[in-house]
């Protein structure tokens, strides 16, 4: 039976990790438990950060926020909304996709480097993360970064820990730089484009100075190609008219404003727009946008995949049947010209047998292993999760 540990302070985490390292007893590290991704971790104990809660610093005038790792994302977003501010990278909620419960936490967002459609313009979570506190596999709590943006020398552990999935240390506090909330947003919609023409249209829009904050293509009957921009109402109206004229060669353009525009992007961020069957595997594929349509066509033909194109075609979500290798060999062969694929959703047995994250070249894998060994020499933090 798996036991769940809920430490309330860093000192408790340090003691738990010291004991685990000494007895070589693996720990599965969880935040809110909403992102069950990676190879299954074989551990008799789960260390959850859910009890490490609370916003520890919020200075709206400086646009910076620090919170303990177990703080619910909804609590942070509510505090920011009261001051018309936001996390720039558009946090995502994969509970519908993964069939998980619980509440997303800011530590889980950081450990997974999660980001939604706005990443194409604003970057990922790590691009706005400016400080961390974390307990390593040595049972030592470290601090990196700070509460202001500045140039520093030395190792950038802040960026290293973002996206490390709890394999280097247990995040206990994170600090983010914020952005003002947009007054409004507009989405331009083109219908009936093929994937190839959609990528052309998205590339044309992204090449303009109109600061596109979302560019996605949803195949279907008819297909929809969506282009979003945000800001002041007058600016959005100006960009709407100019961009619609710029996209005239691709067909009629419909403008969707405000709340209706937001409603278009939530299913894209949360990947429910993919429409994958509940028992399908789901892959996230990163590729050059110009290669996206050919990769997508191959997956449709050979695997019967449903597809969703995001980030101007640079990110493809694809469903496959959760049988055998869940299409891994075909998908990774399709990326032989460049790119990588992550198996985001599949049964435990599939994820235990198939490399979930893109296999690394030997030299990179050796460096990654040395880094993990430095932070977690006993190998007790989420062992094998990224294997």
From TrEMBL:
Molecular function in Gene Ontology: catalytic activity; FAD binding
FAD-binding PCMH-type domain mapped to chain residues: 1-181
Pfam families linked: FAD_binding_4
InterPro entries named among the record's database cross-references: FAD-bd_PCMH, FAD-bd_PCMH-like_sf, FAD-bd_PCMH_sub2, FAD-linked_Oxase-like_C, Oxid_FAD_bind_N
This protein's UniProt keywords: FAD, Flavoprotein
Cross-referenced PANTHER family: D-LACTATE DEHYDROGENASE, GLYCOLATE OXIDASE SUBUNIT GLCE
Identification of the protein by name: Glycolate oxidase FAD binding subunit
Originating organism: Kaistia hirudinis
């Amino acid at each position: 039976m798996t036991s769940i540990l809920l430490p309330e302070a860093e000192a408790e985490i340090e003691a738990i990790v010291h004991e685990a390292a000494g007895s070589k007893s693996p720990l599965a590290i969880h935040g809110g438990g909403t992102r069950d991704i990676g190879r299954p971790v074989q551990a008799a104990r789960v260390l959850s950060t859910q009890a490490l809660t609370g916003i520890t610093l919020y200075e709206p005038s400086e646009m910076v926020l620090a919170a303990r790792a177990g703080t619910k994302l909804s609590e942070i977003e509510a505090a920011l909304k009261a001051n018309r501010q936001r996390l720039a990278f558009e946090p995502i909620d994969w509970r519908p996709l993964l069939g998980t419960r619980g509440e997303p936490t800011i530590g889980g967002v950081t450990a997974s480097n999660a980001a939604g459609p706005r990443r194409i313009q604003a970057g990922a979570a790590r691009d706005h993360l400016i400080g961390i506190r974390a307990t390593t596999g040595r049972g030592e709590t470290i601090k990196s970064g700070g509460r202001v943006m500045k140039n520093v020398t030395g190792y950038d552990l802040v960026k290293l820990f973002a996206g490390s999935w709890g394999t280097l240390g247990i995040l206990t506090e994170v600090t983010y730089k914020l952005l003002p909330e947009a007054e409004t947003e507009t989405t331009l919609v083109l219908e009936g484009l093929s994937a190839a023409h959609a990528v052309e249209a998205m590339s044309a829009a992204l090449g303009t100075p109109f600061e596109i904050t979302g560019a996605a293509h949803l195949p279907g009957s008819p297909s929809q190609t969506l282009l979003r921009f945000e800001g002041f109402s007058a600016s959005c109206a100006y960009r709407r008219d100019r961009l619609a004229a710029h996209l005239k060669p691709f067909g009629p353009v419909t403008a969707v404003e405000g709340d209706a525009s937001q409603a278009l992007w939530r299913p894209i961020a949360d990947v429910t727009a993919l429409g994958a069957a509940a028992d399908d595997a789901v892959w996230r594929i990163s590729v050059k946008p110009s290669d996206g349509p050919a990769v997508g066509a191959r997956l449709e033909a050979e695997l019967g995949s449903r597809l969703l194109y995001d980030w101007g075609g640079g990110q493809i979500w694809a469903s496959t049947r959760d049988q055998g290798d869940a299409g891994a060999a075909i998908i990774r062969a399709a990326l032989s010209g460049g790119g990588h694929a992550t198996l985001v959703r599949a049964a435990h047995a599939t994820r235990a047998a198939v490399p979930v994250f893109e296999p690394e070249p030997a030299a990179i894998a050796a460096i990654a292993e040395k880094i993990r060994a430095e932070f977690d020499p006993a190998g007790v933090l989420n062992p094998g999760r990224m294997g």
